[in-house]
Amino acid sequence: MSDNMKILYAIATLTLLSTSAQAWQIVDRCTHSRYFGSVCTRSYVDDPVRNPAQELEDEKARRASIEKWEAFCKPKRTYDNEGVVRLVYARKGCEFGRSE
Question: Mean pLDDT per 10-residue run, the chain (100 residues)?
Fold first, then answer.
């Protein structure tokens, strides 16, 4: 292995190790006063706990919404003069999300 490759691997390794994975958000709140200047407080907000059952229910609801829209709008693919795919809908307003 050449010296240049070793240096590149070392730089890549250091870059990956120097970035930290954060499991929270940083929120800064600042207040300004003409007498006291500005005062800022920093707080850390933990990520919400994942609920797999709720995520599954949300996915089912999203799928049902998509199927309802497809049944109402009946999208069909067409190609324009330049070969770009365009969708044509059976009803007006479907390009804006109308589903009933």
Answer: 74 68 77 85 84 95 94 93 92 84
